[in-house]
């Protein structure tokens, strides 16, 4: 059970690479997908390693990614105000 | 930066995913703590890929949460430039003022309504060149302002001209053959002028920066936090220093945390070490405290405190 | 549609009969109008206004700060306005020039405030202690871009008191920076100034919104061209910018929004120009010549007009109390019936150009120029009145 969970707002990403670089657990890689601006957003390649530290979120200059600690797997309304733009993550593991 | 181009089939699949509304894949998206402070209807913002300004905003948002500051009494004032655009993206009472004059505007706000917590969020050119005079006088007066100076070593918005902070021998659009002027050591300048809290971090130091901003919120007087931040499009590119990520790696490698370091020793060069840390944390009465004390002493009972500014409603 | 007014706060009103100069009277006018904040920088011949404010306001309840330069003073006062205060600054020519960017900022962000210019000889350092009226065009056009302002010209210390209150009232009503165009003589002449009791002084309060946070649009107007205001700390989380902005206050830099915004900044004043216009008129009926003047020159012109009438000439007087927006309608109307306008000014021809423009060729316009440094000789004005009457 991963300790943390990542959310990526794909359309905001500008592929700067900060999150990939500074994730202490190397959870992320830039994907080969494109968003509508032509950037490669990151995707989670090691979801099991995510600790929910949210360093990715703190580094992201585009407010395109964040992570939080997993409290309850099926905790309803955890997101509070819904943000329809919070799409993703494109979890490779789920393919 | 891995940029593996998988075969076309993979690409098509990914693109298909992205084209569809992916909300159903994540029924409980994680809420980014910064989101409630953003004017989401204005995101994505105008800052370049790899620009560090957005990163500083995350640290700022975190400080707002951790310090438990009353958001209703918070006002943010910025000047002109890339960092100046922060005012337009935060969901606070925010003022995008004129070039170099965020600090005097903020002074007026604070003096008219002392209950406000006033943050000045602006860039190195705005605060130390055209705004330099106001910077030193507000520090001298110890006006209770929290100044976040995002220093990307350049005038970015206007296309990469030399700033007073541009390290020498850098190439800029107004020094195409290399800067030959010495650059400002901002922490030294503001300490000499009278600031009570002086710190420098880089956009690599996201948590330390957040903590510094929280400390500034809890401190009365003129606080100045310099954040070294990449400008990939102009400073980095023109000086063949790579992109934003290269700058961040550079900050990680070249930064030396030296809390309490004498500010005279923290000047920066283009490729040298970057001294970061909390340099100054001292006590001096702030402007309004001194003003009140002086009037009480001189006028005694005749002194009338400024009334709370009530909105005189129509 | 007259603006809503309230009675002045008695704490700021120095009721009584005084013998004071224009600068001091201006300060009292500001206090009576409810101003509790000033930011300034010393410059002759205006400094006394804020010196008096600095000594009065700690006992009334307010703040004065002497800033490091006029660039700071002119924006610090605007920060204070957004913090809830009625605020002003005071300067003369060189400082007025420095303040121009921020006058434009006030116009663009619709920040109600008052800029007092006690005019002196220019250009540049010029004649620091001597009068001129050569900043009149600058008051209107000094900042870049298209914007409107209101400008008032007192001609006595009493008017320095009365019209300062009017200046603040207009600023609040139209959410515009108001230029208070004094001159060195009016500022330094000492005369009787009667300050009435506070309950006889009408003051326009801040047009603060009553809308809910969800409904409120910082630059939204519903019919009325002047938006409602909020202050920092009221909980509206609004954004103010000098960039071209939409009704939410968000930067929106398109030609469409530019057109909408800048035209409204203009029409909110020009549509009300006839209502804003204030002048003093005398014997305009049947006049052959009308002397148009303002400020200290109007006092000298009065003498010249008397001398002309003694000679049997039919001379009317039109004293501009509001110089901007320029009273086109009045001038155009007069131009139909008179032979000529005579416009004495302490400059080489500024407001006379407006008179000429508005007259549209229907009447001649004669300038009586004076480069500044003193006031006209009444005889010099009389000479031109006689010439114009031919």
Notes on the structure:
The complex is a heterotrimer of chains A (95), B (314) and C (390). Chain A is an alpha+beta fold and 95 residues long. Chain A has one domain: Alpha-Beta Plaits, CATH 3.30.70. Chain A has helices spanning 18-22, 55-59, and strands at 4-8, 28-30, 42-44, 65-69. In chain A, the strands form 2 sheets. In chain A, strands 1-4 form a two-stranded antiparallel ribbon. Chain A has a two-stranded antiparallel sheet with strand order 2-3. The longest helix of chain A is centred in the first third of the chain and has 5 residues, at 18-22. The two termini of chain A are 18 Å apart. Residues 77-95 of chain A have low confidence and may be disordered. With 314 residues, chain B is α/β, with parallel strands linked by helices. Chain B has a single domain (36-301), classed as Thiamin diphosphate (ThDP)-binding fold, Pyr/PP domains (Rossmann fold), CATH 3.40.50. An 8-stranded mixed sheet of chain B has the order 2-1-3-4-6-5-8-7, sandwiched between helices. Chain B is globular. The termini of chain B are far apart. In chain B, 54% of the residues are buried. The model of chain B is unreliable at 1-10 and 16-25 (pLDDT under 50). With 390 residues, chain C is an alpha/beta fold. Chain C folds into 2 domains: 6-203, 3-Layer(aba) Sandwich (Rossmann fold); 279-389, 3-Layer(aba) Sandwich (Rossmann fold), CATH 3.40.50.920. Chain C has 14 helices and 18 strands. Chain C has helices at residues 22-33, 47-56, 70-82, 93-98, 100-109, 136-141, 157-174, 184-188, 255-270, 273-276, 295-310, 328-337, 351-359, 378-389, and strands at 6-7, 16-21, 37-40, 63-66, 87-91, 113-121, 127-131, 150-152, 177-183, 190-195, 202-203, 239-241, 279-282, 289-293, 315-320, 322-324, 340-344, 364-368. In chain C, the strands form 4 sheets. In chain C, strands 3, 4, 5, 6, 7, 8, 9 and 16 form an 8-stranded mixed sheet that branches. Chain C has a 5-stranded mixed sheet with strand order 13-15-14-17-18, sandwiched between helices. The longest helix of chain C is centred in the middle third of the chain and has 18 residues, at 157-174. The model of chain C has no long low-confidence stretch (mean pLDDT 97). At the A-B interface, strand 1, helix 1, helix 2 and strand 4 of A face helix 1, helix 2, helix 8 and helix 10 of B.
